[in-house]
Amino acid sequence: MQAPGHTMMRVPLTLPHFLERAARLFPAVEIVSRLPDRSLHRYTYADFYRRARRLGEALLREGLRPGDRVATLMWNHFAHLETYFGVPCAGGVLHTLNLRLHPSDLVYVARHAQDRFLVVDDVLLPLAEQVCGEVPFECVYVVPLTGRPVPTDYRSYEDLLESATGHWDYPILEEDAPAGMCYTSGTTGRPKGVVYSHRSLVLHTLAAALPDCLGLSHQDVVCPVVPMFHVNAWGIPFVATLLGCKQVFPGPHLDPVSLLDLFAAEGVTVTAGVPTVWLGVLDALRREPDRWRLRLRTVVVGGSAAPESMIRAYDELGIAVLHAWGMTEMSPLGTVSRLKSTLTALPEDERYAYRAKQGLPAPLVEVRAVSDRGEVPWDGRTVGELQVRGPWVAASYFGGEEPDRWTSDGWFRTGDVVTIDPEGYVKIVDRTKDLIKSGGEWISSVDLENALMGHPAVKEAAVVAIPHPRWGERPLAVVVLREGQHAAPEELRAFLAPRFPKWWLPDAFVFASEIPKTSAGKFQKAKLREQFRDWSWD
Ligand code: ADP
Hints:
Elements (H helix, E strand, L loop, with lengths): L15 H10 L4 E5 L5 E5 H17 L7 E5 L4 H12 L3 E4 L6 H11 L1 E7 L3 H8 L6 E5 L11 E2 H6 L15 E6 L9 E5 H12 L11 E4 L6 H4 L1 H8 L2 E4 L6 H11 L3 E4 L1 H13 L10 E4 L6 H9 L3 E7 L6 E5 L10 H9 L3 E2 L4 E6 L2 E2 L8 E6 L22 E9 L5 E6 L4 E3 L2 E3 L1 H8 L5 E11 L3 E10 L7 H8 L11 E4 L13 H7 L7
Parallel strand pairs: 1-11, 3-4, 3-5, 4-8, 5-6, 6-7, 10-11, 10-12, 12-13, 13-14, 25-26
Antiparallel strand pairs: 1-2, 8-9, 14-15, 15-16, 17-18, 17-19, 19-20, 20-21, 22-23, 24-25
Helix pairs in contact: 1-2, 1-9, 2-3, 4-5, 7-9, 10-11
């Protein structure tokens, strides 16, 4: 064996390369952001480069040390993108705070991460003020998005950038050095911190960009609707910057009409977000089919299951829904559902069934499903807990909580219950905590929800386990109807009946005006279970 020096160069995989490449090759490409007052802020990669570097230099002058956490409390826009690169390229760790968390959770997370600095949008100062008193930030920099003067208790982000000279060299960065940090949104227990390294972000970016993953190219105009505080907006800003795509950010305006206006005006080709966003957009498109001229080709849907009916409906509009599964602990890309070349001749229903699964593991991600009896076969029927391994999967939580989430042979337990079929497609049956156990048999709440959301009158549906004296647990469906639509429980039951065994069908349908959601827009089933805890079955 020869020494490693006799093979290829050992160039560290770090983020400054992204910044340098984008500025060198794509200086004139635009980055467009919608501001709180709805006006559009536009500048180029050349501007972005200058400002991101200034941020890095200025933070070092402020005393940033390698590995120090810099928190952000920001919407999706150009300045947030500047922190994505300015902070890690100066050796810091970008900690994106989830602005939808309760202030007490934000305090917990910021203290747990020991954040030294905070960068906050001026429009979010009322929220920041509820947090700052209880977190020892050394300095708070305010981004004046509205143009109003920054209150005197704080520093202006613009002044911070002004204080830089523009002349400095990146510090030497090891590829394993920490670069970013995100907390799980806490659907299951206290938020837990995950620290991304330069290397993990670079490798994740390369894989995410691949044609069989997100399939992005420099030709694309990319708009992440998924918040930049939610697992790095699924890594999209990193991919878009490395490739030099035009980037479009929605700011705080996330309602369907604002999004569609922005997509149409800026020629967005690829966007991404959770299913609830795309169900709303679909409604708007159906109401006014001729209002928008879109160039949209792909909508990446993840975070919770994309209902098959939604994938079909977007196909009819000529827009491909790309269903993906991931987790904060996985940077987040785990699986993507694209039809294999050997499956394209299948009947339509079977093709859709594959596309509605969570998909094939991305290159470099290994998956296995494990039950009490060991690893389960890839037969598409036997369920087990999904375990994963790969270079962008967390090796531990920040602070070392819950070490038993990792197996003794080095796999991460996802907490998702899945089947894997002979083709390798992973299908999420449920979260371990959401499964319904009736008469000793498992019922998938996700399958029932997705089928219900295929009923024309149903906007959203969540199915939860309710204690039952005879069966242990039975499914109860909470249904939100579309505006002006009606459907009786018997009708919904009859709609589900041909697709499921009789004992799977929910015993009760409750109509609600909304389903409680987490900060990331997922159904909060724990809350529903709590709400219906004393439900009486007779
Ligand atoms: P949290 O764990 O706090 O909800 P994450 O954003 O990390 O925050 O959520 C990851 C979880 O979201 C996964 O473990 C899975 O249960 C769910 N999830 C993500 N994508 C999908 C998907 N495409 N289909 C079904 N569930 C999904």
